[in-house]
From TrEMBL:
<dbReference type="InterPro" id="IPR037031">
    <property type="entry name" value="AstB_sf"/>
</dbReference>
<dbReference type="GO" id="GO:0009015">
    <property type="term" value="F:N-succinylarginine dihydrolase activity"/>
</dbReference>
<feature type="active site" description="Nucleophile">
    <location>
        <position position="347"/>
    </location>
</feature>
<comment type="subunit">
    <text>Homodimer.</text>
</comment>
<feature type="binding site">
    <location>
        <position position="100"/>
    </location>
    <ligand>
        <name>substrate</name>
    </ligand>
</feature>
<feature type="active site">
    <location>
        <position position="230"/>
    </location>
</feature>
<keyword id="KW-0056">Arginine metabolism</keyword>
<feature type="binding site">
    <location>
        <position position="232"/>
    </location>
    <ligand>
        <name>substrate</name>
    </ligand>
</feature>
<feature type="active site">
    <location>
        <position position="162"/>
    </location>
</feature>
<feature type="binding site">
    <location>
        <position position="341"/>
    </location>
    <ligand>
        <name>substrate</name>
    </ligand>
</feature>
<feature type="binding site">
    <location>
        <begin position="127"/>
        <end position="128"/>
    </location>
    <ligand>
        <name>substrate</name>
    </ligand>
</feature>
<protein>
    <recommendedName>
        <fullName>N-succinylarginine dihydrolase</fullName>
        <ecNumber>3.5.3.23</ecNumber>
    </recommendedName>
</protein>
<dbReference type="Pfam" id="PF04996">
    <property type="entry name" value="AstB"/>
</dbReference>
<comment type="similarity">
    <text>Belongs to the succinylarginine dihydrolase family.</text>
</comment>
<feature type="binding site">
    <location>
        <begin position="19"/>
        <end position="28"/>
    </location>
    <ligand>
        <name>substrate</name>
    </ligand>
</feature>
<comment type="function">
    <text>Catalyzes the hydrolysis of N(2)-succinylarginine into N(2)-succinylornithine, ammonia and CO(2).</text>
</comment>
<comment type="pathway">
    <text>Amino-acid degradation; L-arginine degradation via AST pathway; L-glutamate and succinate from L-arginine: step 2/5.</text>
</comment>
Amino acid sequence: MSLVEINFDGIVGPSHNYAGLSLGNIASSSHGGDTSYPRAAALQGLGKMRSNMELGLAQGFLLPLPRPNRVLIRDLALGADAPRQLIAAAWSASSMWTANAATVSPAPDTADGRCHLTPANLVTMAHRAQEWRDTKAQLDIAFGDSQHFAVHDAILPTFGDEGAANHMRFCEGHGASGVEVFVYGTQGGKFPARQHEQASRAVARLHGLAPDKCVLIEQNPEAIAAGAFHNDVVSVANERVLFTHERAFADKQGAYDAIAAAFPALQVVEVPESAVSLEEAIRTYLFNAQLLTLPTGEMALVVPTECQESAAVWSWCEHMLATNGPIRKVIPVDVKQSMANGGGPACLRLRVVADPATVDPRFMLDEAKLERVEAVVAENWPEQIDPADIGSDALAKTVIEAREALLSVLSLDTLA
Ligand code: SUG
């Protein structure tokens, strides 16, 4: 069996809109009320998937969830006079950010030798807390082979869990056993700390991780207060490398030492505040990048184009490439529609180390399928959504039919 990293990107749903729902997510707040472009958003996401496949990497996807969400509308008794924010929650396309779909522990790390997945409960925000059951329905199909996978329920909502966005894995090659790092928050000033330490600990236990192969680290409250609502806004890991802003963790040296104690081969690539301020890192999403191992063995960093447009960030990237560190390429991608809601290239994907042959093939992507999905999006996704359209019957019909068209092309009508 050959284990590789498969990136499962969320296909941006037809109801993609800017409702300003995420307190502590500066892009979401500042774009609240803007007109959105769901068709362009979905095509941008699919373009990123194509570009990664062209690098020779395995690519999968997860589907948009049913919106407007009739279950939430029923459970909260949302009539036409309900608060706009709650109606918008039922329409949110936030499941596109699959880094928050689940936490994943690959088979080599777990006690029973299976890959474990726990959907994130996302309890901090109503529009996200509605996701996990429908997400799990997809995980149950995509990773339904119980010889190789175990899909859990989300953990108790008392403890907020944001999934892979607050989780990193260090290893010497993806198929080798790794050290898993869980990053939790305790405070964020006027913004919520979304990941609870006890959620991280529970996920580690559920997945059967060895205690000496787990590290718990606290996010820097200053980073949360500056808009790093998930750890993956200020750091990302791949194999031996931790690429991080110097202000990501509450106790920087303590964090590096704790990871190195469990994983001595650790290589830290730290970006100092003097080169890129925390604010600029959060604005450009330099760290919300996909840090990928290419088939050549080199590492590439897939960053949003916003990084190229920032003098400070781009000159730091050029400096990094010139100094011959472990990251050998920087590849900008345009995901501006997602970025305006606080979702960069890394938010849009869930990493699963597995043998692709053990995954339900309907969730794996190749060029021919990508073209079919693009055609469905081009024909069915609304070109734009104005905030006043949210809640309208006409738009609901368009959004529901668009998703159904996608399910049908992918032979996944069972998720309707
Ligand atoms: O949870 N935005 C998402 C962005 C998630 C990014 N994910 C990672 N960092 N892994 C969030 O804040 C915006 C929705 C709105 O405002 O309509 C939103 O949910």
